Amino acid sequence: MNYRLAYRIGFHPWEDAATDPPFVEKISAVFDREEQGRQPPFGRALDLGTGSGIWAIELAKRGWQVTGIDFVAKALLRAQERVRQAGVQVQFVRGDVTALRAAGVSSGYRLVLDTGTFHDFDTERQTAMGREVDAIAAPDATVLLLVWPKRRRPLIRGASRSEIEAAFAGWKVTDVEASHFRLPKLMELVLKPDEHWYRLRRK
Ligand SMILES: C[S@@+](CC[C@H](N)C(=O)[O-])C[C@H]1O[C@@H](n2cnc3c(N)ncnc32)[C@H](O)[C@@H]1O
Q1: Cα(37) to centroid(ligand 1), Å
Q2: Which of 24, 70, 97 for a ligand 1 pocket mutation test, highest count of atoms within 8 Å of Cβ?
Q3: How far is the CA of 67 from the centre of ligand 1 (A)?
Q4: Which residue out of 3, 9, 105 has the highest number of ligand 1 atoms within 8 Å of its CB and is therefore the one to mutate?
Q5: Backbone CA torsion sign across 95, 180, 30, 164
Q6: Distance, CA 87 to ligand 1 centroid (Å)?
Q7: Angle, to 10 degrees, between the axis of helix 54-62 and the axis of helix 73-86?
Q8: Is 67 in the pocket of ligand 1 (CB under 6 A)?
Q9: Positive or negative: CA dihedral 38, 63, 131, 48
């Protein structure tokens, strides 16, 4: 997926998920689980490939101290505007999720969220992202990945469970759950997203 071009021409169908009740209900339940038994502030959260900041802002509203990183300037401009309208605080970094430390991302993140970067990476970038997340995540961190399965379809490569486990070698998959993400009918038929949440904790 060429994200720079996508944002330039205003093609960002993943943002529609934020107004699709089944998806929103599931992502809320996924966040609830990480907050269970705690009171806000919940700690530091990192939103990888934050895009226009939709989920970074949601986490900030819930009481997380959020950093969002993306490599597309236009996406981050839209994110800044959303943050201003929401009246919350989110720190944005322009950089590559496969080189978090080089981008100036610090450590101690209790929650690392990825709603759509890892599953489009080749093996080299998957490995780099896993290594970087391992370096910046807190000892008790949770990693949440939204992943389309690996299959022969256009636009998004997809990733298999074994690829996730290989990239996050020091982590174990604790849960795999349907995200209830839907695309418009024709795109759904062509792309077959069948998207799942993967939850990982350190071994
Ligand atoms: C499918 S979009 C999801 C955006 C956002 N997380 C959401 O759910 O609305 C994937 C995002 O990851 C960003 N991205 C892809 N590869 C990246 C990389 N190597 N480093 C930083 N951002 C990246 C894209 O620019 C895009 O904003």
Answers
A1: 31
A2: 70
A3: 14
A4: 3
A5: negative
A6: 23
A7: 30
A8: no
A9: positive
Residues in the chain: 203
Give, for 56, the enclosing helix (H) or strand (E): helix 54-62
Report the chain's terminal Cα–Cα distance, integer Å.
32
User: Which DSSP string do the residues of 123-170 spell out, in sequence order?
Assistant: HHHHHHHHHHHHHHEEEEEEEEEEEPPP-S-SS-----HHHHHHHTTT
What is the rounded distance in angstroms from the CA atom of residue 144 to the CA atom of residue 82?
Answer: 23
Distances from the Cα of 198 to the Cα of 14, 30, 118, 174, 195, angstroms: 18, 10, 11, 8, 10
Q: Give 51 Cα–ligand 1 centroid separation in angstroms.
A: 5
In the numeric block, the tokens 């009481």 are attached to 63
* pLDDT per residue rounded down to tens, the chain (203 residues): 899 999 999 999 899 999 999 999 999 999 999 999 999 999 999 999 999 999 999 999 999 999 999 999 999 999 999 999 999 999 999 999 999 999 999 999 999 999 999 999 999 999 999 999 999 999 999 999 999 999 877 788 999 999 999 999 999 999 999 999 998 889 888 888 899 999 999 99
